[in-house]
Amino acid sequence: MKQFTSIKDVDNLTDLLAIAKKCKETPYQYQHLGKNKTLGLLFFNASLRTRLSTQKAAFNLGMQVMTMNIDKEGWQLELEEGAIMNQQSQEHIKEAAQVLSQYCDCIGIRAFASLEDRTKDYEEHLLQKFIQYSSVPIISLESATRHPLQGFTDLLTIEEHKKHSRPKVVLTWAPHPKPLPQAVANSFVAWMQQAEVELVITHPKGFELTPSVTQQTPVVYDQEEAFQEADFIYAKNWSTYAPYGQVGVDLSHWMIDTAKMALTNQAYFMHCLPVRRNVVVEDAVLDAPTALHIAQANNRTYAAQAVLLKFLQDD
Amino acid sequence: MKQFTSIKDVDNLTDLLAIAKKCKETPYQYQHLGKNKTLGLLFFNASLRTRLSTQKAAFNLGMQVMTMNIDKEGWQLELEEGAIMNQQSQEHIKEAAQVLSQYCDCIGIRAFASLEDRTKDYEEHLLQKFIQYSSVPIISLESATRHPLQGFTDLLTIEEHKKHSRPKVVLTWAPHPKPLPQAVANSFVAWMQQAEVELVITHPKGFELTPSVTQQTPVVYDQEEAFQEADFIYAKNWSTYAPYGQVGVDLSHWMIDTAKMALTNQAYFMHCLPVRRNVVVEDAVLDAPTALHIAQANNRTYAAQAVLLKFLQDD
Amino acid sequence: MKQFTSIKDVDNLTDLLAIAKKCKETPYQYQHLGKNKTLGLLFFNASLRTRLSTQKAAFNLGMQVMTMNIDKEGWQLELEEGAIMNQQSQEHIKEAAQVLSQYCDCIGIRAFASLEDRTKDYEEHLLQKFIQYSSVPIISLESATRHPLQGFTDLLTIEEHKKHSRPKVVLTWAPHPKPLPQAVANSFVAWMQQAEVELVITHPKGFELTPSVTQQTPVVYDQEEAFQEADFIYAKNWSTYAPYGQVGVDLSHWMIDTAKMALTNQAYFMHCLPVRRNVVVEDAVLDAPTALHIAQANNRTYAAQAVLLKFLQDD
Question: Which terminus of chain A has fewer CB atoms gathered within 10 Å of its CB, N or C?
Answer without folding.
Answer: C
